[in-house]
Structures are given as C-alpha cells and as structure tokens.
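ok, trying the design again with the full structure, not the truncated one.
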C-alpha cells in the first residue's frame, strides 16, 4: 500500500515537472497499470482545467468485452430449461367425432328437449289466441271507424247495411283466421322437427355397430 502511494506521488510529481526519474519513466513504458494511472491523471487534470474534450472517446465496448471474458459460465438457465416440455412432446387430447358425441347423449335429454319445444309452441299458441282472440270495442281502431251519415239529403231515413258492429265483427273474424293460419303453421313446423329428429335417431342407431 505504501509503495502504491509512493508511486502515485512520483507520477503526480512527474506530471507537474517537479521530478524527472528515468527509472519511473522506464516503469511506465513496461507496466500497463502505471500507464493507465498516467492516462487517468492527465484526464483528471484536463477536466479540472476545463480542457476535457466535448466527446471523450472511451472504449467502453472493449472494457465490457474484456470483463465478459473473465465472467464464469452460468448454468441456471440450462437447469430451468430441463423442466420445460416441448409442444410436440406434449400429450394431445383427441376430439370425439360428431356422430359419436351425439350417441353419447342420454335418451332422457333428447326427450326433454322435445318436451321443451312442445311447451314453447303451446305457450305461443295461448298468447296468440289471447292477443288476437277478439277486438276491444274501446280500442283506438274502433274509435277511428267512420260514422256513416244515415239521413239522406231528401230528408227521409233509409236503412244502412254497413254498421259499426258489422265492421268490428269482420275485423275480428279476419284476425282469428290469420291467427289460426299462424298456429297451424307452427304446429306443422313442430311435427316436421319431430320427424327429422326421429329419423336421425333411427339412422344413428343403425350406424352404431358399423362405426364401433
């Protein structure tokens, strides 16, 4: 430690021109550490005097490369990668075929679905009948019916064939006929769906021995 301090004092004196030692100069030429200290001292002096370059060319990359050469090799990444499973080596789950998956459904579930469809159709029919079953005489449609003039210009009363009751009755009958058509169409569609499901179930039952 004392020798290092003495060498630094000699370098400082040599830089200031107070000491000219040939042995120290030869040591600077042969010792890399002494040359680095000499360079650092000059850089410190330039900075203190305000003469340092605006963009000092420090070779940081070379210093980092030299430090990495002495860095020991770490194996922690290799130990963690040993626990990682490749995607190709992972077990693959097979997906069932549509026909096989359909056969796995229990029979009671299929029957429950048919009952639910029937209940929905019945509910639609009941609501439709309640909605279109008749016309309210106090409804806006009835209030908007025109009032016919029953007294002619001649001054004598004549029978009128078109009355409010006849118009309301014809409108109600038209609504009922339209509602019946809709109900029949829904029932036909429901029967068609039942036949399609029944045929599909029978076809799956015939194909079951062949697939298995």
């Amino acid at each position: 430690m004392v020798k290092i301090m003495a060498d630094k004092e000699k370098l400082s004196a040599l830089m200031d021109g107070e000491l000219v030692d040939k042995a120290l100069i030869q040591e600077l030429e042969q010792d890399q550490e002494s040359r680095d200290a000499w360079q650092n001292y000059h850089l410190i002096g330039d900075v203190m005097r305000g003469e340092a370059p605006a963009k000092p060319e420090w070779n940081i990359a070379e210093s980092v490369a030299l430090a990495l050469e002495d860095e020991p090799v770490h194996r922690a990444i290799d130990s963690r990668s040993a626990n990682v499973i490749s995607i190709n080596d992972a077990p693959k789950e097979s997906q069932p075929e549509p026909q096989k998956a359909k056969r796995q459904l229990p029979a009671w579930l299929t029957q429950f679905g048919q009952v639910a469809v029937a209940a929905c159709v019945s509910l639609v029919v009941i609501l439709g009948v309640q909605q279109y079953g008749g016309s309210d005489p106090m409804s806006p449609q009835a209030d908007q019916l025109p009032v016919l003039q029953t007294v002619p210009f001649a001054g004598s009363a004549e029978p009128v064939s078109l009355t409010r009751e006849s118009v309301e009755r014809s409108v109600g009958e038209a609504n009922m006929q339209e509602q019946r058509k809709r109900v029949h169409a829904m029932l036909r569609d429901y029967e068609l769906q039942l036949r399609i499901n029944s045929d599909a179930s029978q076809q799956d039952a015939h194909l079951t021995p062949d697939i298995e």
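Keeping the full-length input from now on. The chain has two domains: 1-53, 98-145+162-211.
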